[in-house]
Amino acid sequence: MWNIVSTPVIAASLLTKKYKDFAAVDGISFEVEPGESFGLLGPNGAGKSTTMRMVGAVSTRTSGSLDILGLDPNQHGPEIRSQLGVVPQQDNLDMELRVRDNLIVYGRYFGMGLSACAAKADELLEFAQLSDRKKSKVDDLSGGMKRRLTIARSLMNDPKVLLLDEPTTGLDPQARHILWDRLFRLKEQGTTLVLTTHYMDEAEQLCDRLVVVDKGTIMAEGAPADLIRTYSTREVLELRFGSDNNAQVAEQVTGIGDRIEVLPDRILIYSNDGDADLDRIIAKGFTPITSLVRRSSLEDVFLRLTGRSLIE
Amino acid sequence: MTALIESTAAIEAALKPRRYGSWYVAEHRLRGMRSYYKTLVFTSIGSPFMYLFALGVGLATLVDKNSGLGSTSYLVFVAPALIASAAVTAAVEECTYPIVMGFKWNPIFLGINAAPISGNQIVNGIFIAVLARLFPTTLIYYAVMLIFGAVPSPLGVLDIPIAILIGMAFGLVIASYMATVEQDVGQPAFIQRFIVTPLFLFSGTFFPLSQMPVFLQWIGWISPLWHGTELGRVVSYGAVEPGWLTLGHVLYPLALCIYGWRRTQVVVTRRLDK
User: For residue A66, what are the CA distances in angstroms to A70, A118, B1, B9?
Assistant: First the structure.
């Protein structure tokens, strides 16, 4: 008898993509379990989108192994893609077609019949809160609506895995929250989500587990809270003394907190008790222009791992 | 075991897209054409009337007196060239903008390729849609030619497939170039003005190629339009030419079609796999 064990839906080992001499993705390994929500967090140019295109079975890897739903994309591209939903970084809806027709045409690509496409399109327009815009031209939609339509399109085939490349980049805060809410619902329904982002709040909201990627390699892996616990302190004290003075003050307060990072516009003091450390600094005779105690975030993890800020 | 179930489901789900993918793309393109169908209908009907009247009736009043065409009227002489030109115009339109658009302006090819559709199928689908547009375009043109009495021979009905062949030969070769365009610096307009228009004028369209200086006649030989026009004249009114030449008029455009089709597939596939 076979045991039903959960095998990963995606397994990448030493996955590499080179363009001539430049390695956009340089030997990364990760696995994604069914129903999991997995993130690739990193700055622009880290190799996230290239990884997503390889996982999406449209870009051939240079070396390493890649297994998606038990299949190798080199041999089974169309088979793998039949089970995926893809939300690319740049919307590629068809501007010549109306909103609803975009969904119907896309469903056809999975071999769905016309009436099945129409029914599914109406259901997904409801889900994407676009039912009242179904006859609109795509061009007349706002950025957030286009994004929701792209997500609706990616769900036409009831995908096992949904790939989202920078799903909320360029959206205003309200549109982002609506989108997060929709993605959260999909996650609750058991859809496996794989997303890239350079927004730490997005990664914290949506990902069960993530890898921090920089320059084509994985710097760290874990659940957001675990990563923060491992690579940062509980709290961060942010102080501004004016851009000319930050570095000088930082030298004189060494020893306070676990670690100090000097950024061009502010000092970050990694601490387990930010308020107490602030009192100590004031007691030394330094008065910051502004001060803020906040909880550590993935941004701090990234800074610790790479020495660079996530959004530059 | 779950992996086995999943991979089996995937293999089953990809059967239809693998088999019919090209047709789905064609269907998509035809739906896209619906957004400008009024222009299509108007030009398909309007343009044959305009050209046949202006050239075949208007200009002919001057030409027929001194044409050297014997008993053949200028209208009959020019009509096969005009129907082929109409097919070329439509094919070039569908093989320039939609190709650049699919990669750049509105990169729908990337979206289609993210579904289980290959680059080759995308190319096939676009070309099927071009064929589907050429068929009514040439059919209407031919009907108008009949109205004008421009086709003496019943074999003239072959003008329709000939025009479609010539349109495709032009279009597919141009598509194979357009697929390589990464930076749009007005290539479609350039092709229209400096390739299509000169070939339209100098392919034996309005006067026999033999009237041109010998050192310019090569323009006709490489132009599929000249081959189509000559072939059209053979079927339309029984113009006389050696059999091997007639065969060449068929084989040369066919070869261009095959080259353009395969080349576009190679370029598109390579460009999608980044």
Answer: 9, 35, 18, 19
Looking at residue B112, what is its pLDDT? Answer: 97
Q: Do B112 and A109 touch (CB under 8 A)?
A: yes
The pLDDT value given to residue A310? 59
**Rounded to whole angstroms, what are the CA distances from A302 to A163, A189, A225, A231?**
23, 31, 13, 9
- Chain B residues inside the 8 Å CB shell of A97: 31-32, 35
pLDDT at B206: 84
pLDDT (tens digit per residue) in A283-307: 998 999 999 999 998 888 888 888 7
Q: Which A residues, 67 through 86, put their C-beta within 8 Å of a C-beta on chain B?
A: 69-71, 76-84, 86
Residue in B with minimal Cα distance to A59: B273
Q: Which of 3.40.50.720, 3.30.110.10, 3.40.50.300, 3.30.230.10 is the CATH number of A10-222?
A: 3.40.50.300
3-state secondary structure of B56: helix
Mean pLDDT of A205-226: 92
Domain of residue B30 covers: 21-272
In this prediction, the answer to ipTM > 0.85 reads yes
